[in-house]
Each structure stands twice: as C-alpha cells, then as structure tokens.
C-alpha cells in the first residue's frame, strides 16, 4: 500500500518544482519583454529622436502530477504559454518638445470612411421612405 505521507511529499515536490520552473521562466522572459526588445533602441538623426511605444506581454500556465494507489498509477497535466507585442506609436523629440504620434490601424480608417459613405447613401433613402409612409397615413 502507498504511504499517504510519501504521496503528499511527492505531489508537493512536483508542485513546487513546477512553480519554481514557471517563476524562473517568468523572471527571465519578463525582463526581456520590453519595447526595446521588440522594436529596438530609440533612433536619433538630424536633430530628431524617435522612441517606439508598444504593448508587450506574456503569460504562462503550468501543471503537476502524482502517483496514486497500490498499483502506482501516475496522473499529470501540463501547461503552456504565449506572448505578443503590438506597436502603439512613437514619441518624437524635436527642438526640446516631445510629441506622441499614434500608429493607427489602416482598417479602422477604411471602416470609418465606408460607414460615412454608406450612411450618406442610405440616409436620404430612409428619409424619403419615412416621408412616403407619413403621406399614406
């Protein structure tokens, strides 16, 4: 028969080992998840300095395993992780002044333009339909 005390120690050891591994990974990768790691150092030229601005992040999950029963069957689970970065804009330093310039998603600009065009086409038609309905009643 399995000694419950040893099983608890084994499970606790596995959990601690998994936790330690994830903490070490988070420390190492967290120190590298920065704008400069993703987009490089600020660029200086002709009296202008450009500093990239970005959002970078990562996440991890883990698991543990243990042995159960007299037959010493093992059970366990794993984990995974991922990360990403997205450029947000840049800061331009020129003549002692700092200006933030966002990077806009081109699809957002296209969607806004199309919405305005569609509204411009449909609004007169809707107004005519409403006026015609009022005349009928």
UniProtKB/TrEMBL annotation:
Segments of skewed composition (Gly residues): 75-85
Pfam families: Spore_YtfJ
InterPro entries: Spore_YtfJ
Ranges for region Disordered: 64-85
Protein name per the record: Sporulation protein
Organism: Streptomyces jumonjinensis
């Amino acid at each position: 028969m399995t000694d419950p005390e040893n099983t608890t120690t084994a499970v606790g050891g596995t959990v601690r080992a998994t936790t330690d591994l994830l903490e070490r990974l988070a420390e190492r990768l967290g120190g590298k998840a920065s704008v400069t790691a993703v987009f490089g150092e600020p660029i200086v030229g002709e009296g202008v300095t450009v500093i990239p601005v970005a959002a970078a992040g990562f996440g991890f999950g883990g698991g543990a395993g243990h042995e159960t029963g007299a037959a010493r069957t093992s059970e366990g689970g794993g984990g995974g992780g991922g990360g990403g970065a997205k450029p947000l804009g840049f800061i331009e330093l020129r003549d002692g002044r700092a200006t933030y310039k966002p990077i806009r998603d081109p699809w957002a600009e296209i969607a806004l333009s199309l919405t305005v065009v569609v509204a411009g086409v449909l609004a007169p038609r809707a107004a005519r339909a409403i006026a015609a309905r009022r005349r009928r009643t």
